[in-house]
Amino acid sequence: MGDSVIMKRVFALTIVAAAAAFAATAASAQTLNTVKSRGVLHCGANGTLAGFGLPDAQGAWTGLDVDFCRALAAAIFNDPAKIKFVPLTAKDRFTALQSGDVDVLARNTTWTSSRDTQLGLNFTGVNYYDGQGFMVRKALKVNSALELNDAAICVQQGTTTELNLADYFRANKMKLKTVTFASANEAVKAYDAGRCDAYTTDASGLYAERLRTVKPDDHIVLPEIISKEPLGPSARHGDDQWFDIVKWTHYAMVIAEELNVTKANVDEMVKSDNPEIKRLLGSEGKHGEALGLTNDWAYRIIKHLGNYGEIFEKNVGQASALKISRGLNALWTKGGLQYAPPIR
Amino acid sequence: MSAVGDHRPPRVSPLNDPRVRSIAYQVVLCAVILFLVWGAVDNAIDNLARARIASGFGFWNATAGFDISQTLIEYSTTSTYGRAFWVGLLNTLLVAAFGIVFATILGFMIGIMRLSRNFLVSRLAAGYVELIRNLPILLQLLFWYNAVLKALPELRDSILIPGGGFLNNRGLFLPQPVAEPGFDAVALAFVAGICGAVAYRIWARRRQQRTGAQAPVLMVALALVVGLPVVAFFAAGSPLEFVYPDRGRFNIRGGIEVLPEFVALLFGLVIYTAAFIAEAVRAGIMAVSHGQTEAAYSLGLRPGPALRLVVIPQAMRVIIPPLTNQYLNLTKNSSLAVAIGYPDLVQVFTGTVLNQTGQAVETVAITMAVYLTISLVTSLFMNWYNARIALVER
Asked: Tens of pLDDT along B353-367?
């Protein structure tokens, strides 16, 4: 360790303000070791969006993104409970990941080129293919987003939603009045109080937020989807091992669904003769060790959480209040976009 | 002092010379601070580069691509981030300026009410102060925002304001006056009125000092400042057009638009800060000894002039420093606008711009510099005013 490195460590300790946050990223190359020695995975989650990240009345977190983080914890610790969820607003999420407050960000975050290249983070995949839509009051008798010329629209700040909205209205030569809020909560409340004609966010979010209005039946979701919103987890830039672990956690769940390995049958499947299943569950090859984990990493994920389809149905699908159909998120073999490279 | 002549301290080694020592200590301290600051900056730059986070101010001229609900200068989704910064800054200054004026008026009223001999009036003011200043401002802002939204009708049931205005939960919409060619005469008359009023006041004061005769300065000044432009307005043939707000399918366009977010923020800030100003005013007035009031009465002044000419000028010396604090607090508290959707500097710049560009260090540094500048300018002005009215000891 050279003198300059020691000096920088000294500074990292002395500068408590902004710089301290960035000093933490200097040590980010060993995220896996940091997480292991800490004994707890720090996961940046939504906290207010049903189906993706929301603590219930007892403080137990539920959601698609939440279960993704649990799967990661299961792969590392063989215990999905060794996790701390940090609720983040759209505005603060990237800073929290950059500064090392969280190890992984799974907060229904759209993968865009500028976020991937300029924010010091890497998207590891897409765990939900979404698109932006609008919710309006039925009483307005609006049937299409193209009729929203001159409408006031409530939106959450710091989202791709804010930009898509402006783009869509500009492209269609319509006038727009946006009212921007820091939290989705306040934005929906203001929309419900009549401040805006429409509320816009990702379609999956619209169904969840509609349930929070005073009279959900008074609101409809318009048919237009105005953008591509590939939502996925992200990890800090510069730690390829950690990036691989986060990426393959999602793939393992997709592969498990392809191979019909479920939470219920995983113990029997370990004995299967199918080489693909053997490689996935670690009875053949050393694919887990190559990631820096144990060879039964994927077994742990499926044993504790289940495969992608199970997690989907439980949180946003037919078994949930949202009742969203698989659509784009079906496996590629069933007409969807979920596809994983093979383990070999 | 001068009797000592050429007294010199005994020669000592520089090591033991207190002056040399103190200078040395300060040089060392400065060096340490500079070293730490340099280290922090270097460290931050180093880490940003390592994490491949974009840095620099190149984003300033990039297209912002988002909309802002209240813009005092021209702004569209194709404007730059730099333009968005100015929009946010002006919105902050707007709410701070209105807030300071109204909070001062309300605060002085409440403060004087609290000293009233009328039991009900003084208790009412005391209750106001205790209730308001003990509740968090963020809570009050959310309360006012929801109160404003819930109390107002929907667009279709807008309250019509005589003269072509609308009031609904989208805001207050008023006809916008637009000056026509002959309007210069009215502006000229207004300036002339102010000059005349100032001249009259100087003349009246000199005459009072010479002869003791008082003149109705307030009435004459009002007549000059208000009356003269009104006369000029009609003489020039009412050179003013109004652009009336127009009701569309969803919204109202044209005219002056006052957002409910602005009203709620202004309301919350004024009511909160006025409680603190009221206490400063009460403390200031109570600091003036009762003998001053008695002396004023014994000179034959009635209670009104006694308060205005004797008590308040002395109280101001005590009131100004805490009042400055409250002005600064109000300006800084305006950044809570982010919670209720008012597009102030923090909401637009440290919110959306930071998030879209990901350049936290630059945007936060700029925002801090702006608030620092606003605060320093405010306290500079208040210090100047304080020095002007300070007690001059002779």
From this structure: 888 888 888 899 999
Q: What is the pTM of this model?
A: 0.77
Interface test with A, best of B347, B352, B353 (most A CBs within 10 A): B352
- CATH number for the domain formed by residue range(s) A3-129+231-334: 3.40.190.10
Backbone torsions φ then ψ of A199, nearest 5 degrees: -120, 135
Q: What tokens appear for B292 in the block?
A: 């001053």
ipTM of model over 0.90: no
d(C-alpha B63, C-alpha B70), whole Å: 18
Structure tokens at A154: 């409530």
Does pLDDT of A10 surpass 60? no
Instruction: Give domain limits for chain A.
Output: 3-129+231-334, 135-227
Smallest Cβ–Cβ distance between B251 and the set A26, A118, A151 belongs to: A151
A135-227 is classed CATH 3.40.190.10? yes
Tell me the C-alpha distance between B162 and B217, whole Å: 35
Contacts B360 to A, Cβ<8 Å: 18, 95, 98
Asked if the Cβ–Cβ distance from B364 to A120 is below 8 Å, we say no
CA dist A180 and A198 (Å) reads 12
Rounded-to-integer distance, Cα B314 and Cα B296, Å: 13
Per-residue pLDDT, B114: 92
Assign domain B81-175+244-389 to a CATH class.
Answer: mainly alpha
